[in-house]
Amino acid sequence: MESVADFLSVFNVEVSGFSVTLSLLLIFLGLLYWYSVYPYSVLSRYGIKHPKPSPFFGNLFMFREGFFKPLNNIINEHGRVCGYYLGRRPIVVIADPDMLKQVMVKDFNNFPNRMAFRFASKPMSDSLLMIRNEQWKRVRSILTPTFSAAKMKEMVPLINTAIDALMNNLNVHAESGEAFDIHKCFGCFTMDVIASVAFGTQVDSQNDPDDPFVRHAKMFFAATFFRPLLMFFIVFPFLATFLVGILPNKRQKVMSHFFNSTIKDIIKKREEQPSEQRRRDFLQLMLNARTSKECVSLEQFDTANHDDEADHKTQPTQPSTSDQDDSHPRTQEPSARGSQKKMITEDEIVGQAFVFLVAGYETSSNTLGFACYLLALHPECQRKVQEEVDDFFTKYDTPNYSNVQELKYLDMVISEALRLYPPGFRFAREVYHDCEVNGLFLPKGMTVEIPASFLHYDPEYWSEPEKFIPERFTPEAKAARHPYVYLPFGAGPRNCVGMRLAQLEMRMALVHLFHRFNVVACSETKVPIELNSTSTLGPKNGIFVKLTKRDV
Fold first, then answer.
1. Whole-number Å distance between alpha carbons of 363 and 112
2. Residue 379, C-beta contacts closer than 8 angstroms, at least 6 positions apart
3. Nearby residues of 503 by Cβ (< 8 Å), 6 or more positions away
4. Phi and psi at residue 524, in whole multiples of 5°?
5. From CA 116, how far away is CA 109, in angstroms rounded?
6. Is the peptide bond before 316 cis (omega within 30 degrees of 0)?
7. Rg of the chain (C-alpha set)
8. How far is CA 6 from the centre of its chain?
């Protein structure tokens, strides 16, 4: 009997232990289920329609092939104000131009920051794309004068050097008579421009792909959005801050060390040089701006931001030819605070040099590639560009910042290419305070997404939106159209600070190209072209065309 009693007592203990284990397991599973679904009531709570989310991932897998078409499909199905879940993060999509005017300009103080990205490390974390609030305002106030028309004129010789290399490379392809990827050539060109104007170094990425700058830059762009570690952080974001610091990421460390050390070495050498020997590039302009009277005071920056609407109505692709700085935001003479205080750190200078690479490499090369693609498919438009360019060279020996402003039809072509294929086809703002936009309540911390690609194809504002029609951008057509349905460079105080540089390098490159060559569609030219839209909007498999030399 004792043995039976002992057995039962042991059995009871085991049953009791199993019950505890089972209870803990059920509690864990219940918490896991709650964690997997509880964020997905937020959008419905505020009356925002959205596609049905999946546990843990939300609507993330809708975007495995990119954001361009799926985002437009969501808006078409759920309305101009809708949403989706990027993992656990609720995203409110606003495709109403009047509401966007309020978000980007009128109520900018409620939307001063881009979407927070907790995985960024130096030098990216110190860049204008990532910094927030007063730090962003301070750094932007310093960068704004470095993009004035007068400063752009100083960049022309540096851009011309990169254009010479581009024309030599294109000439080789023209002589071969074979199809080639012109987008790849433009990528090398924009890489050369960035290396020169932002990093103070001369490279020829077309002929020297093993140059350390080129290799490390390509290392950055080789990252993919759907890699497993990033997916894990999207599902469990509370672990990101902890794990990012301890998990090994050799590629990230190598890349960050290279750019940090390279720029800091250049800064050290510049400081040891006499001022008259220092290279005139953006890195030097930022170094000068550390204590320069050109710095815009923060008080004036605040005032200028509220005056943005009038600037935007002129359309961002038509900058003034004036020598004065009329970029966003407008500036006046600095106050004592702006002229006396050292306003930018060395780490921030490195961060801004790096943002040139991030924001200027793919965006400009994509636009140049798409412009040539469209003109190859529309030879009648290409002839108009060439007639304008040929007339231009009867008056000028070479293009510069001022005279390329006269190429009105070329500018219309670039504008239409940016409408059809906007590199920054979606961008976001974070809600800083609880607020309302046209009756829509937006709580603090919510992310608002601006779908430029949808607006650019909206048939309510663009007749036959799928067609390439440069004449959409005549002065009369622009004046008759809502200014917030065309956003290739964003709008408001947080628009693209490098817009002026991007326009300059694209115009100068295309002037030389169409003066010397015809761009011809061929059997290798894909129609329609396949697009990659995981980050910027670009061609998925290159842009293949042929070149023939012109008899001019």
1. 23
2. none
3. 317, 319, 414
4. -85, -10
5. 16
6. no
7. 26
8. 73
pLDDT of residue 535: 87
Q: Is the pLDDT of residue 263 over 90?
A: no
Name the residue with tokens 């049953």.
Answer: 15
Rounded to an integer, what distance in angstroms lies between the CA atom of residue 179 and that of residue 524?
7
Q: Domains plus CATH for the chain?
A: 41-549 (1.10.630.10)
Tokens for 71, please give them. 């985002």
Q: Are 92 and 86 in contact (CB under 8 A)?
A: no
Q: Report the pLDDT averaged over residues 346-353.
A: 88
pLDDT in tens, 441-489: 999 999 999 999 999 999 999 999 999 999 999 999 999 999 999 999 9
Terminal-residue alpha carbon distance, the chain: 113
Supply the pLDDT for residue 240.
Answer: 62
Tell me how long the chain is. Answer: 552
Q: If you ran DSSP here, which 8-state letter would residue 529 be given?
A: P
Sign of the dihedral defined by the CA atoms of residues 163, 165, 168, 173, in that order: negative
Kindly indicate the confidence band of residue 218, based on its pLDDT and cuts at 50, 70 and 90: confident
Task: Please tell me the distance from the alpha carbon of residue 112 to that of residue 494, in angstroms, as a whole number.
Answer: 7
Task: State yes or no: pLDDT of 336 exceeds 80.
Answer: no
Q: For tokens 């989706």, what's the residue?
A: 84
CA atoms within 13 A on the CB side of 223: 19
DSSP string, 366-413: HHHHHHHHHHHH-HHHHHHHHHHHHHHHHH-SS--TTGGGG-HHHHHH
- Which residues are bridge partners to 430 per DSSP? 113, 447
Q: Is the pLDDT of residue 286 over 70?
A: yes
pLDDT value of residue 443:
96
Please give the backbone phi and psi of residue 519, each rounded to the nearest 5 degrees, phi first. -100, 125
How much is the pTM? 0.86
In a 10 Å sphere around its CB, with 0-12 CB exposed, 13-18 middle and 19+ buried, how is residue 213 labelled? buried
Average pLDDT over residues 148-173: 94
Please, which residues have CB within 8 angstroms of residue 144's CB and are 6 or more apart in sequence? Answer: 296, 301, 325, 327, 328, 329, 331, 497
pLDDT per residue over 406-438, tens digit each?
999 999 999 999 999 999 999 999 999 999 999
Nearest-CA neighbor of 536 among 349, 350, 369?
369
Give CA–CA dist 385/388, Å, rounded. 5
- Relative to beta strand 89-94, strand 447-450 is parallel
Q: CB–CB of 87/57 below 8 Å?
A: yes
Buried b (16+ CB within 10 A) or exposed e, 70-91: bbbebbeebebbbbbbbbbbbb
Give the DSSP H/E element, type plus range, for residue 449. Answer: strand 447-450
Looking only at the bridges linking them, the beta strands covering 81-86 and 427-430 are unpaired
Residue 37 pLDDT: 77
| Burial zone of 339 (CB within 10 Å; 0-12 exposed, 13-18 middle, 19+ buried) | middle
92 close to 44: Cβ distance less than 8 angstroms: no
User: How high is the mean pLDDT of the chain?
Assistant: 85
Task: Output the pLDDT for position 266.
Answer: 87
Residue 332 has pLDDT above 60, yes or no: no
Mean pLDDT over residues 143-165, rounded? 92
Query: For residue 348, what are its two tokens?
Result: 């921030």
